[in-house]
Amino acid sequence: MTPVNSPAAMPRGGSRLDPWVDSYAARSAGLTASEIRALFAVASRPEVVSLAGGMPFVSALPLDILADTVAAMIRDRGAVALQYGSGQGDEHLREQICEVMQLSGINGHPDDVVVTTGSQMALDLVVRIFCDPGDVVLVESPSYVGALGVFRSYQCRIVHVQMDDDGLSPAALTETIDRLTEQGARIKLLYTVPTYQNPSGITASPDRRAEMLQIAARHNILVLEDDPYCLLGFDGHVPQAIRALDDQAVVYLGSFSKTIAAGLRVGWALAPHGVREKLVLAAEAAVLCPANYAQLTVAEYLDTQPWLDQVKVFRELYRERRDALLGAMAAQFPAGTTWTVPEGGFYSWVTLPEGLDATAMLPRAVSSLVAYVPGTGFYSDGQGRESLRLSYCYPEPERIVEGVRRLAGVIESELDVAHTFGTDHVQPPPGPAFPDPGMS
Amino acid sequence: MTPVNSPAAMPRGGSRLDPWVDSYAARSAGLTASEIRALFAVASRPEVVSLAGGMPFVSALPLDILADTVAAMIRDRGAVALQYGSGQGDEHLREQICEVMQLSGINGHPDDVVVTTGSQMALDLVVRIFCDPGDVVLVESPSYVGALGVFRSYQCRIVHVQMDDDGLSPAALTETIDRLTEQGARIKLLYTVPTYQNPSGITASPDRRAEMLQIAARHNILVLEDDPYCLLGFDGHVPQAIRALDDQAVVYLGSFSKTIAAGLRVGWALAPHGVREKLVLAAEAAVLCPANYAQLTVAEYLDTQPWLDQVKVFRELYRERRDALLGAMAAQFPAGTTWTVPEGGFYSWVTLPEGLDATAMLPRAVSSLVAYVPGTGFYSDGQGRESLRLSYCYPEPERIVEGVRRLAGVIESELDVAHTFGTDHVQPPPGPAFPDPGMS
């Protein structure tokens, strides 16, 4: 055999950095590493208080009980758990998922559920089957960074629609649709996280949900409802899902990442029947089938453990952390800083005093051993420089307080710099408010 | 709140069957359910001997030991196993994967490995980053049905290249490339399963591997080497991978589905560095990260269990079943039937006596309580009607013998019918041979 590590094996037109640089698909142009990636590698050092990541606090899970549950499952059903399974997902788990969704007022049939490798994969599959390059996806302002990545990867045109503290603005939605329709755009999806939104922490009111749905349906736009946080409301209330209002106009995405464990990667889509058929075929092309191992772990846990009690443990733990964050921000942040008050979930959205730039400030924050995600990550169009997302889900409350103290110091120094260079303004007192001045 | 289950919520242009029928992306046109799907639901009944599925015999795994291994892993590392992880995959597992690949002569770096939800997802990601609609993918004749599904789902043009019993024909490959290049086609990938191929059972010779690589590299065509069966050679020999010959011209796909367990869904890609970067970004858009839970299970199993001894158990078990299949075919199949003799893996490729049609015959086979996959499934262009794939991996040897007995009866009846209607020919004696008369 002749080894062929030779110039003959190097594609023409390539570079030493990447010999395949001329061979990629057009859609790969949207795949570029985020500028803040390197910074986050630094931010993961233990001395940094990270208010950046959205990691659930899985250490609150009863690991001994889980270990026993999984061991029993492998002994009893190992031949199934370790085997290929259905492309649509385990039937018993799909029944259990329908019971979980009933908590959000959803009447779904197991036949219309597709189990996926986290709900991220469900999101990917929906976009894959619906969106041609150039098709418009409407999203909130701001919107979930992981969803924006999917839309970009399928070369969608992302258009942000204004929000206020009751959720997406119906007037702005109608205006945006009319404007785009006039331009001849094909609007395929309205992507929304209506409950304890990532990143804003905002929850859409019941009226807004109904209005959003009616406007979308009137214009043949499928509502893509992403609902991973619904059971994490601090008062125990579960908002009624948009999908509860209509079974044909909505694809609903759910996840066990925040109620059981993110590392299992078990999520799902509930879709109108015809859409579900296409989703299953797309899922089979993408991964053949979701992991029986993780699915049967979830099914066994739901069947044998008091899982809603554990969700309550998570909820109370996150409430305590949210309170720590809100208290510290009110006590420490300088005048002109505003933030949202989430009623559940993981996030608060902070808007800096006028003239400050959260993206430019991030390296200085990391030097001061605190990290956040700049607001620009949640927009596809450069908006969000004045804002940032703070996550309170993972660090202990005292660490959150310390992180806010550090961040307040960074904001103060930025204000000093701005003052020195004359770009400051008279700032209103700090406090909770809907954040983005550019949005209302 | 107003329920909106009303005509207003029904998109215009939709049908009662699927209101969204006019909204799908162009790529969804390739997503159609296989005609034989319903038949396979019947074929999964216990009274049917299924020689159709490619399910590994996971019952041979030591379930008690696995249960203890996983329980210990959750107790010790649950906070990691149940958490989100790196989009590229767990670092320790990537190191272990490099050790596994050394068995195939591959010198890879953990930095260039991406862990995926089964190697199917790696395949999907490679096509996603490389192939625009209309781009050509070269594949073997026949080729793996799951890969054809991926290529179709990205609207690739699939072109089959002839094989013989030493693998892909270099002359045919060159001729095909020249012809397509003359037409102005953009050929992106050469997809090959060089070892114990699914579905043909054929293994490419060392010389053929080197020739295939040189021809592809000369034409800027990336070789996509899919190698899930490499450790399942019946004589214990592991063929040297094509990737062992060149680290820039090949993306190598590997899997634990056949060496540990398919239900874990842990596979990987080893790619040139620039390609790997894009693969990780695409993976993050697709699923955020592979499941730490499954990855740490595999890592713990590799670290603490004699996993290569277990592979040997699988190998001997599959050899016994291959022998049962070959013996039964030689004893039972009528004159004119030929088949391949696999030296490893799961499959033999059978060609029926002239004039018979494996696709048309399938319903009658299922009525006679035996199932197989018709050859047409492994072609994108309607070829393969005279052939079928038999899998010997899952049924016990005596069931395989019974299945072949039933199938032989079905072939005999088909020959009787053909004889009655005058379409039969003088048939050569039955026996092992390279199968497809249309291919050489």
Question: Could you walk me through the main structural features you see in this protein, from its secondary elements to its overall organization?
Answer:
- Chain A has 440 residues and is an alpha/beta fold.
- The first copy, chain A, folds into two domains: 37-60 and 310-421, Alpha-Beta Complex (Aspartate Aminotransferase, domain 1); 84-304, Aspartate Aminotransferase, domain 2, CATH 3.40.640.10.
- Chain A is built from 13 helices and 16 strands.
- Chain A has helices at residues 37-43, 63-81, 91-102, 118-130, 145-153, 170-182, 206-218, 257-261, 273-287, 292-304, 307-332, 358-367, 397-420, and strands at residues 49-50, 113-117, 136-140, 157-161, 163-164, 167-168, 187-192, 222-226, 250-255, 266-270, 338-339, 347-351, 370-371, 373-374, 387-391, 431-432.
- In chain A, the strands form four sheets. In chain A, strands 2-10-9-8-7-3-4 form a seven-stranded mixed sheet, sandwiched between helices.
- In chain A, strand 11 and strand 12 form a beta hairpin.
- In chain A, helix 2 (63-81) packs across helix 10 (292-304), helix 4 (118-130) packs across helix 9 and helix 11 (307-332) runs parallel beside helix 13.
- The longest helix of chain A is centred in the last third of the chain and has 26 residues, at 307-332.
- Chain A starts with 36 loop residues before the first helix and ends in an 8-residue tail after the last strand.
- At the A-B interface, helix 2, helix 4, helix 5, helix 7 and helix 9 of A face helix 2, helix 4, helix 5, helix 7 and helix 9 of B.
